[in-house]
From TrEMBL:
<dbReference type="GO" id="GO:0016301">
    <property type="term" value="F:kinase activity"/>
</dbReference>
<dbReference type="InterPro" id="IPR011611">
    <property type="entry name" value="PfkB_dom"/>
</dbReference>
<dbReference type="InterPro" id="IPR052562">
    <property type="entry name" value="Ketohexokinase-related"/>
</dbReference>
<feature type="domain" description="Carbohydrate kinase PfkB">
    <location>
        <begin position="56"/>
        <end position="284"/>
    </location>
</feature>
<protein>
    <submittedName>
        <fullName>PfkB family carbohydrate kinase</fullName>
    </submittedName>
</protein>
<dbReference type="InterPro" id="IPR029056">
    <property type="entry name" value="Ribokinase-like"/>
</dbReference>
<keyword id="KW-0418">Kinase</keyword>
<dbReference type="Pfam" id="PF00294">
    <property type="entry name" value="PfkB"/>
</dbReference>
<keyword id="KW-0808">Transferase</keyword>
<dbReference type="InterPro" id="IPR002139">
    <property type="entry name" value="Ribo/fructo_kinase"/>
</dbReference>
Length: 354
């Protein structure tokens, strides 16, 4: 991964549109002030830090069997279409994340639930083949494992998933404290996929009591997720989540709101599909002499640093500290008013190359 940053002068930039700016932001530009202290650094693509000596991670959430059908176009109601290819493979957010962790050289343990059916057996075998520790997966007698039908549209480059939850679901009574302590032994991080929030909270509180950092994947707002987010130090969310959760007018301002509403969060990342991802990181640095800037305008400037010729993932970072401002509603004796809140943070984008 290559990190690139150019020093800027003290000019205050104002919002304007650019064809190089991702369409999600072009549609939702909104004034939001930040301040920056600039640094410039370039990191070699081969300068990958070694894995820590203890690299055990624990994951909690859903693992499934996915029945994938690739089609030339999504069918209309009552249509019959022929697949161009089909495949059966493991899926589910937690299953995918832990498989990825294993392939990157980490030691993942997965807390989940399957049934003793053919699909559950297939899920366990595939995870074990990828060196994911499945000894903390609960296997129910009877019932059915989670599965999904997935239509992959080659024309629009989209996928549509029809998800059937497993039965019976994973509940706190399925997990003893001794089992969780065994799973947490040596863990550097606990990952949650944002599903099964009641049981996730049970596991999350135990992780917090053991001072293990928590990462939450937030795909869409759901009951119980807010409390889980308050336990998290890191959040990775879908493109639609930040605005849906904060009701902010743009993704950048929504990320600022998330860090303000969740004081334990060290960084939040939003994934943007073909446009890569955007990260806002909390910083402890503060300089009262910094000037204010417009967040959307500065983000646009970062995107202009993107080299379209690169075919490798590229990270473009401010590498400095911003003073990001947000207005939060509050009540006083005269009714509802707005309070200006300050957040020191670092802005970073990553593109996946062409």
């Amino acid at each position: 991964m290559t990190s690139i940053s150019k020093p800027f002068n003290g000019t205050i930039f104002h919002t304007h549109h650019s064809s190089s700016f991702p369409h999600q932001f072009r549609q939702h530009l909104h004034s939001h002030s930040i301040t920056l202290r600039h640094k410039s650094i370039k990191i070699s693509a081969h300068a990958v830090p070694p894995l820590p000596q203890n690299h055990t991670v624990v994951g909690f959430g859903m693992t499934t069997v996915d029945f994938l059908a690739t089609v030339d176009g999504y069918p209309k109601p009552d249509d019959k279409v022929r697949t161009t290819s089909s495949k059966v493979q493991g899926g589910g957010n937690a299953g995918n994340a832990l498989t990825c962790a294993a392939r990157l050289g980490l030691k993942p343990k997965l807390i989940s639930k399957v049934a003793d059916d053919a699909q559950g057996k297939s899920i366990l075998e595939e995870l074990e083949a990828d060196c994911v520790d499945t000894s903390f997966i609960v296997v129910s007698k009877g019932g059915s494992s989670t599965f999904s039908y997935v239509l992959v549209d080659t024309q629009t480059k989209t996928r549509t998933s029809i998800y059937t939850p497993g039965d019976p679901p994973l509940v706190p009574d399925d997990l003893s404290q001794s089992m969780l302590l065994s799973a947490f032994d040596g863990a550097r991080l606990v990952y949650f996929d944002g599903m099964s929030t009641e049981t996730a909270l049970f596991v999350g509180r135990e992780a917090a009591r053991n001072n293990i950092p928590i990462l939450v994947e937030a795909e869409s707002p759901r009951e119980g997720l807010d409390e889980l987010l308050t336990l998290a130090e890191f959040v990775v969310c879908s493109a639609r989540f930040p605005q849906a959760w904060t009701q902010s007018p743009s993704i950048p301002s929504a990320l600022v709101s998330m860090l303000l509403r969740l004081p334990n969060i060290k960084f939040v990342i939003v994934t943007l599909g073909e446009d890569g991802c955007l990260m806002l990181e909390r910083s402890a640095n503060e300089d009262v002499g910094l000037e204010e800037r417009n967040v959307e305008s500065f983000l646009e400037l970062l995107y202009k640093e993107k080299d379209e010729r690169l075919a490798i993932p590229t990270c473009i970072s401010s590498l400095g500290s911003y003073l990001a401002w947000n207005y939060m509603p509050c009540k006083n004796k005269h009714g509802v008013t707005a309070t200006r809140l300050k957040l020191v943070c670092v802005l970073q984008i990553t593109s996946f190359g062409s």
